[in-house]
Amino acid sequence: ALRRTEILLSFDRGTARAGQDKMAQARRALSLFQHHDGITGTAKPKVVRDYGTRLYNAYKTCNELTVSAIKSLLDGGNLVPYNLVSSRGGFDRLEEYAVIAAEGEVVVSNTLPRRVESVQLLAVGTDHSLEVIDTEGHQLLQQVEPRLELGKLHTDSKYLVFPTDMPAVSLQTFMLRPTDRETAATVETYNGSPDPKLAAMFDAHSVGADCLDIVIGSSALSLVIECTSGRLLRISRDGLTVEVIQEVILYTGKSGTYIFLPAGDPKQLHGSSARPKIVVVKGPVRHKAVVYLSSTLTLTYSVNLLKGEAGQYIELEMLTDLKVSGDLAIRFITNIESGDSLFTDLNGHTIQQHKFKEKLKTQGNFFPMPSTAFIQDSRTRFTVLAREPHAVASLSPGWLEVVLDRRTTVNDDRGLGEGITDNLPTPSHLRLLVERLAGPTQKQQQKGRSGYVVEYPTLGSHMAHQALLNPHFVVYSPAIKNASASRFQQLMKGMPCDEELVNLRYVNPITSLLISRKLGHTCNTHTHPSLTELCAGDENDPARWFVGDVEVRDHPMSPLHEPAAGNQHRPNEFSSYHVTFPSELN
Question: For the residues 11-38, what does the mean pLDDT come to?
């Protein structure tokens, strides 16, 4: 939220000047949270509440300033009512969607420096049928599906799902208008009868006990789920099929607040009770399968039926509400011959290789995963991208497991003085990628399986992860403006696809500070055609990244180094520039 707000305020400099003090407070709240007890949650309850309250207030401030910037950039600051499509009611509350009950406008903002394809959700009242129209008057592909959240069906509303294709750093308006041609998704229920209210709202039917494996997705990307247990079995992408057997496990033992001490093998939660209820939703925009493993654990697999980047990965959303002591994890068992190697990121920048060491036991082979982890052999890579930090391990060749949540009553005398029992319903957002590699690299051939090698994410993995961490910001207005008015604003032309826009921060009435990073990525992969098209015609001159005439000069982060000539910095290096905007923006 902070990055998104700072980027938009750089183009609405009036709001930026008025909100300088508020932005400073938001930055301080985020900086305070970087304390190690804030990151891990190992703090007294009153300290946790203080962290949460400060972060939540900063979150609200950023949303308010973002809405003000959108009003100014699209409507010149007119008093147009804009409401958040989704928001949180408190630091200890989950994100909730506001129900749209009438026609109006939806404004979508993209703060990534490239074209981004994604899928948007709107909660629409069940008594209303709406269609989405773009700025040129064309109806978008869309579907209507049930709202299945927290294991419950929302009977007062439904999801309106539609794709967007947003240019780099831009705002775009979409119209919501009444329609009698609503495209409803089909709904199938496994291992139980459909909810009567669900059957009344949608064409829902149940599948018998002698069911076949569930297949969702398209010919380009699909996954298979076992209907009797809800386990993922395999993933297929562009002719490449990888066995990916998913298990949900619980480690128990003598783990304390700071120390992970599992006792033996974990407990398998799949198949430990009756068949889980599974709801499968299929429409023209996306397919999804919701697996209710228990009243406190839900898994949702989604596949977007799009040809671009949003159709190249699998979304996995999990909601856990841990009530028993232990460490809850999800394990993926693949047929990839990864040996004893696991790769994780270091704070989202570089990749580190880890080797499994049997003498360290289970607890010594878990590592931090701020955002990315993958295993691979010479031909295939399996990548897990995360919106939230996790712990990760590869305890056997082809395995990758991610810790989701933990709870313990044990005080291990390391400083907190109590266990961790204040668990709340916790969402985890993962993206799963299966990628075909071109073959072993020269370094891999030289080092062999026993040596350490330098690896990088693929460019497609970078794109998917940036979109995961920086989702579009969406607001709704019940007012409909003049159709002839400008309802689209492109604020930047874009940056090279291997450049990351870290931040664009307002400095003074005419200047902003641009911070970018050169992405380190492997070329040892088959590039998807959509990515090749996206990267065509990249411009390396920072002044040409912007719309209009701006002056850009190098601003070295350290006075000990001279600026690199011609933007020739190396992978994983940061660069900074002073950007001077024309006076009409002020």
Answer: 88
**Residue 451 identity (one-letter amino acid):** G
The rounded Cα 215 to chain-centroid distance in angstroms is: 23
Q: What's the pTM value of the predicted model, to 2 decimals?
A: 0.92
Q: Give all strands of the β-sheet with 143-149 in edge-to-edge order.
A: 99-100, 116-125, 152-166, 143-149
Over range 56-74, report the average pLDDT.
92
| pLDDT level of residue 368 (50, 70, 90 thresholds) | very high
Can you tell me the distance from the alpha carbon of 21 to that of 42, in angstroms, rounded to the nearest whole number? 30
| CB 442 within 8 Å of CB 281 | no
Residue 165 above 50 pLDDT? yes
Q: Which residues pair with 104 in a beta bridge?
A: 176
Integer Cα distance of 220 and 231 in angstroms: 21
State the DSSP string of 102-138. Answer: S-EEEEEEE-SSS-EEEEEEEEEETT--EEEE-TTSP
Model pLDDT for residues 542-564, shown as the tens digit of each residue? 888 888 888 888 877 665 555 55
Check residue 479 and give its pLDDT: 73
The single-letter code of the amino acid at 461 is: S
* C-alpha dist (Å) from residue 65 to 12, 40, 122, 132, 362: 10, 29, 22, 26, 46
| Residue type at 77 in one-letter notation | G
The DSSP element (H or E) to which 61 belongs, if any, is helix 45-75
Question: Read out DSSP for 283-346?
Answer: -SSEEEEEEEEETTEEEEEEEE--SSGGGSSEEEEEEE---SSEEEEEEEEE----TTEEEEEE
The number of residues in the chain equals 586
CA atoms of 249 and 271, how far apart (whole Å): 11
6 conformational bin, left if phi > 0, alpha if psi -120 to 50, beta if neither: alpha
pLDDT, tens only, 461-498:
999 999 999 999 999 988 766 544 447 788 888 888 88
516 is written with which tokens? 């970018």
What is the full DSSP assignment across 356-386? --GGGTTGGGEEEESSEEEEE-SSEEEEEEE
Q: What percent of the chain is modeled with pLDDT above 70?
A: 90
Torsion angle of alpha carbons 475, 481, 484, 489, nearest 10°?
A: -20
Share of the chain above pLDDT 90, in %: 53
Q: What CA–CA distances, in Å, run from 92 to 25, 64, 323, 351, 386? A: 21, 20, 16, 32, 20
User: Do residues 427 and 360 make contact, with C-beta atoms less than 8 angstroms apart?
Assistant: no
Q: Do residues 213 and 233 make contact, with C-beta atoms less than 8 angstroms apart?
A: yes
Q: Please compute the mean of the pLDDT values over residues 59-63 and round it to a whole number.
A: 94
Nearby residues of 208 by Cβ (< 8 Å), 6 or more positions away = none
